[in-house]
Specification:
heterodimer, A: alpha+beta, Beta-Lactamase, Heat Shock Protein 90, five-stranded mixed beta sheet, 10 helices, B: alpha/beta, Rossmann fold, globular
Chain lengths: 442, 146
């Protein structure tokens, strides 16, 4: 079948161009490729090798040659056309109708930009590329010819159909870009939030540093005086003081030393809370052995501490793990029964893919109602006369494990003793969690 | 330095001053101990200015014991002054403070301290420290002659 005013080969060629364009628009995710290729195809459809897409800029007055074929360098992506009433571009955009000039040299209605003439264009046809719903036009599809020629109604009909197809494709890209811009904006807002939070954290860390400094310096000064002068009294004025006076001076010394221990423990705890230890896969056995030696040395007596070695690898930070274990083992050794020799055992087990280290003792045990609160700072169950301590050790255990992505707890029977456990993060899960947090930032 | 050399103690806490004096006494340190209680006074004493303007020509300290947390001017500033002031450029400065903060230790050495001591707690610790100061800085160490 032959369409009105078209030779059969011409109509066939234009159908093929439509089909090829449709395929291209579906296949490509590169707008520049689509626009350039559409210029080549439309030229083929109209029997010319010169065509371009000009894009209306946000100012509404300038057209930029966004893509094209057949042009010398310095046109595509560079050349612009200022819209005015005496330009065919302005007319086409205003009316939405195709504008044709069969011979630029004899054209009297419009003036043409110099680059058109320099590139040898003699005739031109403009069709509008409409924008999406409620949007300004995207621009124009312009087909040029190096020879003066008439553009038939059939040519402009083909071009309009083609330009509408192009418009739909361009609009799809615009929507994708809008979504991307919105996402980028949200991501930017999120990044600002993260930066602000980081700065706030740094500020609060700096305050904690200042606090720790004050505690270590100012709180210790009066203590030094109390303990120093009380000891001078005990040493140099013992006769004058008598037994009773000496006893009182001794109480000042003991109280000062206890305060000193509290300050040290509190400083250690605040240092721990400020850290962000990077847990990694480590061998805990040497750390356990060092903790055992440390506890033995501080007790001054050799008590029975068995380590069921080797212990499996755990996700931990060595220094924090050392603090945690030292506190757990010294705790186990301290709360002993008068009538039973101390027996402490350190062993490990796998529960649901995670490693648990158990520190077990045969000491006085903990009543069920106290088993949770012993992990709080300054929480103590016994007077200083029976079991001296600062009440910070188990808080360090719990805080330290939390910092490393693990946890701590206790099972205890007041008849048999206590079994404290620390559980470590699953290496695979921790890796995944850090991947996720990276992903949410990007 | 010898047993007649002046030791300057820069310390604002009167209790600590008394404890140091006591410990020096017990350790048998017979050197004259001059005490200034804030950073400005320390700079005046060392530079022979202000209240100490009339003391030009008299011998300066051969050992400075310096607290860090001082009124008016910090121990670090005093330390910088000591190192910039010609007559005390090479005078041994022993920082004697209650701080055991890593940052304070580093800053002290960066500004030219010769030693960093944390104030001991208790009488015996103090006397031990005074004895060590005597054995090392007064008897053993050789400084630049004034």
């Amino acid at each position: 079948m032959t369409e009105e005013g078209k030779s059969e080969p011409e109509a066939l060629r234009q159908h093929i161009v439509f089909a090829q364009f449709g395929e291209l628009a579906l296949r490509s995710d590169d707008l520049d490729e689509i626009l350039t290729e559409s210029c080549r195809l439309v030229g083929e459809g109209l029997g010319t090798d010169l065509a371009k897409v000009v894009e209306l800029q946000p100012d509404g007055k300038t057209l930029l040659v966004r893509a094209g074929v057949g042009w010398k360098p310095g046109v595509v992506g560079v050349a612009t056309i200022q819209l005015a009433d005496d330009t065919s571009e302005g007319f086409a955009l205003k009316t939405g109708k195709p504008m044709t000039s069969s011979n630029i040299e004899t054209e009297t209605r419009f003036r043409y930009p110099p680059f058109l003439i320099e590139n040898g264009a003699k005739a031109v046809v403009n069709v509008i590329i409409i924008g999406g719903k409620d949007k300004p036009p995207y621009g124009l599809l312009q087909v040029d010819s190096r020879e003066p020629r008439e553009f038939t109604e059939s040519d402009t009909a083909f071009l309009s159909g083609y330009a509408n197809l192009l418009a739909a494709t361009v609009d799809r890209f615009r929507l994708i870009q809008e979504v991307r811009d919105k996402e980028a904006g949200e991501r930017h807002a999120l990044e600002i939030k993260v930066t602000e939070r980081t700065a706030a954290l740094a500020a609060s860390n700096a305050q904690l540093d200042a606090f720790a400094y004050t505690v270590s310096h100012d709180l210790r000064a009066p203590l030094r005086a109390m303990e120093g002068f009380a000891r001078i009294l005990l040493n140099d004025y013992a006769v004058a003081l008598g037994d009773k006076g000496g006893g009182y001076a001794n109480r000042i010394v003991v109280a000062s030393m206890r305060m000193e221990g509290l300050i040290d423990a509190l400083l250690g705890y605040s240092r721990l809370r400020r850290q962000e230890p990077a847990a990694r896969l480590i061998e805990p056995t040497p750390i356990v052995q060092r903790a055992v030696e440390e506890v033995q040395a501080s007790l001054g007596s050799n008590i029975a501490i068995d380590v069921v070695a080797p212990l499996p690898s755990v996700m931990a930070e060595p220094i924090v793990l050392g603090q945690v274990l030292t506190n757990l083992i010294s705790n186990a050794a301290k709360f002993q029964r008068d009538d039973v020799p101390v027996q402490v055992t350190v062993r490990a087990e796998h529960t649901a893919g995670r490693v648990r280290i158990w520190v077990e003792d045969n000491g006085i045990g903990i009543a069920p109602e106290h088993q949770e609160r012993i992990f709080n700072v300054f929480e103590r169950l016994h007077g200083d006369e029976t079991y001296p301590g600062t009440g910070i050790g188990l808080a360090i255990v719990r805080e330290g494990m939390a910092l490393m992505g693990g946890r701590a707890g206790v099972e205890s029977d007041p008849e048999k003793g206590s079994r404290f456990w620390i559980e470590f993060a699953d290496a695979a899960q921790l890796a995944k969690a850090s991947d996720d947090s990276v992903g949410s930032r990007n | 330095m010898n047993e007649l050399s002046i030791i300057l103690l820069v310390e604002d806490n009167a209790d600590d001053v008394m404890l140091v004096q006591y410990a020096f006494d017990k350790a048998g340190i017979l050197n004259p101990l001059e005490v200034v209680a804030d950073g400005d006074a320390a700079v005046d004493y060392i530079g022979r200015t202000g209240a100490y303007a009339g003391r030009e020509g008299q011998p300066g300290p051969d050992l400075i014991l310096l607290d860090l947390k001082l009124p008016r001017r910090s121990g670090f500033e005093v330390l910088s002054f000591v190192r910039q002031h010609g007559p005390t450029r090479h005078t041994p400065v022993v920082v004697l403070t209650s701080s055991d903060q890593e940052a304070d230790i580093r800053r002290s050495y960066e500004r030219g301290a010769n030693s960093f001591l944390v104030k001991p707690i208790g009488r015996d610790g103090l006397i031990d420290m005074a004895s060590a100061l005597k054995a090392y800085w007064i008897k053993l160490n050789r400084g630049v002659a004034p």
